[in-house]
Amino acid sequence: MEDRLYGQLAEKMAGQIRSGVFSVAERLPSVRLLAKREGVSISTVTAAYSLLEEQGWIEARPKSGYYVRRRVREPLATPSTHSMHSPPVIATTSQLVMDVQRDGFRSHPISFSRATPALDFPIIRHVEQTYTRLSRTSRHMGVGYTTPEGPYAFRQQVARHAVDAGVTVAPDSIVTSAGSLNAMGLCLQVLTRPGDLVAVESPCYYGILQLIEACGLHAVEIPAHPETGLSLGALKLALEQWPLKAILTVSNFSNPLGCSIPDERKQELVALLEQYQVPLIEDDIYGDLYFGERRPRAIKAYDTQGLVLLCSSLSKTIDPQLRVGWVLAERYYEEILHRKFVNMLSTPILPQLVCAEILGQGIYERHLRQAREAYRQRYLRLVDLVSEHFPSRTKISRPQGGIVAWLELPRRVDTTELYHYGRERDVLIAPGEIFSLNKQYHHCFRLNYAPRWTPEREDAIRKLGQWVAERIA
Ligand SMILES: Cc1ncc(COP(=O)(O)O)c(C=O)c1O
Q: Ligand 1 atom 6: the closest Cα is on which residue?
């Protein structure tokens, strides 16, 4: 199927909805009929309808077809992007980051602030039952230290699962960790020394910025496009200009933009790494949560020289409480293993064995199918709510997967003020300020759409929107 063809068809149908050819709540032609009428394949029409659905024009009703959505208006514009990289900045901790972390533990807040998955899926019960069974049937206490690389059974499951992202890796070149952030920390300790420069995408997940600070590094922020991620042009310029020691990027459904580097550009990115011989730490923590038909590949899938260190975990797909992650260390294996040893000797074995079972039994795949559809629907609901309650100049990202959306407001709105306003009312958001060291995003903020929508959560969006509307009135 040609990409451009379904895009053109989607645009044509959107034009027809906009001009009233199809009215609100009206059923659109069936996929088969439209394919025949337009002289295109069924898959082209299906892809065009999916795109229109993501853009909020139409909705699919099970066993009935596609309908024009209730309240049709232009989909919100996507957030803007900058074209140049920023000069290196010494990372400094923002107290705000720690406040946002701690806020989540206040009593019963309505939280949109942390990138936590929904925790009411049946897989949580499976995990609990597996914990109970394994702790009864085999010994985990009284066994002393375990090996730093982690149990083979779990590493083997990670290696099997990596195939879905286009990656072939031996279990013996994987090191397990206490989550993906911890895995990235181990990589940075191996690849850099204090004072070195590393490139990150901008806006960037604040945990990565904090990690950079903790390692005494300087960050070069490379702009990310809201849909296609890290700008390769700006990265190339930065590679020419600065002696970068490493690049960190969240390759698929990044946090906060939800953007993904298209697979063909991942290949170009690897070519750049090879040209400059700079290693890249890839965080693919959201890759399994795609809304489309297939999982995007990892950058690692294109790496033939061992320059990509792929990190991930089960924090976003199951529960961050597991604290189970890994890094495909390959040529850095011994150094990373040593770093894990000096940092923590090893990580607890029981959660890793539980995860090995969960991944091995097909429960995980079943769960992912359910989670992906739920998150896709919840994102669409968020777009509806933002359209309804926020001023029309509000822009919202269009993630093709993952659990977070990025909103951009007119520049004169300060989202740290919005954060404080919400906090006093037990509504938590992640203000844009913490996603950069260059104070670029004070008018943006991040919302987590993973939890089920409830009247309280919907009302919280209304309150936030009202505050913004008053600010720009
Ligand atoms: C992009 C990204 N990487 C890493 C993490 C932390 O993951 P973990 O719990 O596996 O350390 C987060 C959490 O928000 C994240 O969004």
A: 181
Q: What CATH number should be reported for the domain holding residue 61?
A: 1.10.10.10
Distance 320 CA to ligand 1 centre (A): 8
Ligand 1 centre from 253 Cα, in Å?
Answer: 12
207 lies in a domain? yes
Residues of the chain above pLDDT 90, percent: 73
> In terms of residue numbers, what domain contains 234?
123-364
Domain for residue 86, yes or no? no
Could you count the other beta carbons within 10 Å of the beta carbon of residue 98? 12
Instruction: Say whether both 379 and 430 belong to one domain.
Output: yes
- Compute the distance from residue 314 Cα to the ligand 1 centre, in Å: 9
User: Model pTM?
Assistant: 0.85
Residues with CB under 6 Å of ligand 1 are 115, 179-182, 205, 207, 250, 255, 283, 285, 313, 315, 320, 325
Q: Are the CB atoms for 14 and 56 separated by under 8 Å?
A: no
Q: What's the mean per-residue pLDDT of the chain?
A: 90
Residue 79 counted as domain residue? no
pLDDT at 246 exceeding the cut of 70:
yes
Q: 116 alpha carbon to ligand 1 midpoint, in Å?
A: 9
3-state helix, strand, coil split of the chain in percent (to 5) is 45, 15, 40
Instruction: Write the single-letter amino acid at 101.
Output: Q
> What pLDDT is stored for residue 195 in this prediction?
95
Structure tokens at 367: 């769960």
* Pair (378, 353) in one structural domain: no
> What residue type is 87 in one-letter code?
P
Cβ contact 323:178 at 8 Å: yes
Our mutation pick for probing the ligand 1 site, out of 177, 315, 324, 347, counting the most ligand atoms within 8 A of Cβ, is 315
- Find residue 309's DSSP bridge partners: 281
Atom of ligand 1 nearest to the CA of 286: 1
